[in-house]
Design a protein that fits this description.
single chain, 287 residues, alpha/beta, 43% helix
């Protein structure tokens, strides 16, 4: 699905609710009032849930400091609820957002006061964006979801000559050699090679793994200490109080919860840092 929204349009169209990505991140937004749906940058900031909003703001400030001079038109790929888009608009950039989830686009439009253009759809499948019209494609924690063989040609298609791609995300830097490890993220060397094949050169790389990894401990603690106990208690109530149909369903739900619990037990900061690297990357289109 691809839905276009013109920046000058006064009304947000009604989207069919087909995409509901990043459910856990959206829940964090609603429960904790987080302004941004991404990792925190815990440099000289205490690692607590209460300090997470401040660490997320530090992350945004660092990321935006990497925007090259002369950039005016920005394509924000995977905009989430629009926290970064709002910062870009407030700093005078012309911003167009792309996200596969209509909910995210609606929130981004509200958060920016309707001052963005937008498209609803997977980046690889969005074809209505103007070609050669952006100075910068920005991917804050979204490139991991994009097929690299399709994403880089899209970047080349939409950027002006000598335009840039700014990425903040984690990448696999070590072979996954244990069960229950998260498989998310591109393999770093393969990703850079694909960029080069499509005419892009890596001109800046900043490793912020140590500063963002503590975010994993915060999310892990919240999930293991709050979400799973509530889920397990609910399953227990259903299995005791309702008929055999509910008991059967609860049996399968319990297995699913245990599987997910085992998975999240292996997503602490130490495990993350062992297998993943979190980088801010700036690529330049050279041909």
């Amino acid at each position: 699905m691809e839905t276009s929204v013109d920046r000058s349009s006064p009304n947000q169209p009604k989207y069919s609710k087909r995409y509901y990505n990043d459910v856990a991140l959206r829940l964090g937004h609603k429960l904790y009032g987080l302004e941004y749906l991404h990792y925190g940058y815990f440099k000289d900031i205490p690692v607590t849930v209460l300090d997470l909003p401040r660490a997320q703001k530090a992350y945004v400030d660092l990321l935006l400091s990497k925007i090259p001079q002369g950039v005016k038109d920005v394509l924000d790929v995977g905009c989430g609820t629009g926290g970064i888009a709002r910062e870009l608009v407030n700093r005078g950039y012309n911003v167009t957002c792309v996200d596969p989830d209509p909910y995210m686009i609606e929130q981004a439009t509200k958060k920016t006061g309707g001052k963005i253009g937008s498209r609803v759809g997977k980046y690889e499948e969005v074809h209505s964006l103007p070609q050669s019209s952006f100075d910068l494609v920005m991917m804050p924690e979204s490139c991991q979801y994009i097929n690299k063989e399709l994403g880089w040609p899209q970047n080349a298609k939409h950027l002006r000559a000598h335009g840039h791609v700014l990425i903040a995300d984690f990448f696999k830097i070590k072979r996954l050699d244990q069960p229950w490890l998260s498989k998310s993220g591109h393999e770093f060397d393969e990703f850079v090679a694909e960029a080069k094949k499509n005419g892009f050169e890596l001109v800046d790389k900043m490793d912020i793994t140590n500063e963002v990894a503590p975010t994993m401990d915060l999310y892990q603690a919240e999930i293991l200490n709050k979400v799973f106990p509530i889920a397990e208690a609910a399953i227990e109530v259903f299995s005791r109080r309702f008929n055999i149909g509910y008991k059967v369903a609860s049996y399968f739900l319990r297995d699913k919860v245990l599987h997910l619990k085992k998975k999240y037990e292996n997503q602490d900061s130490g495990t993350f840092s062992k297998y993943k690297g979190y980088f801010i990357l700036l690529f330049k289109r050279v041909h």
